[in-house]
Design brief:
By secondary structure, this protein is an all-alpha fold. The protein has two helices and no strands.
Length: 47
Amino acid sequence: MPSNTQSDNAKPTGAGRVALSWTIVGIPLAYGIYNIILRTAPLFTGG
């Protein structure tokens, strides 16, 4: 009798697609965080 587990029915996701998606999201996010840090630093350093 075959067992139907969750892993038997799961479809594999492409690791490349996941990496590409995180890159598309991560680059603008990192750029935005970097700019926020640069623009808010003078508020905390008195500059």
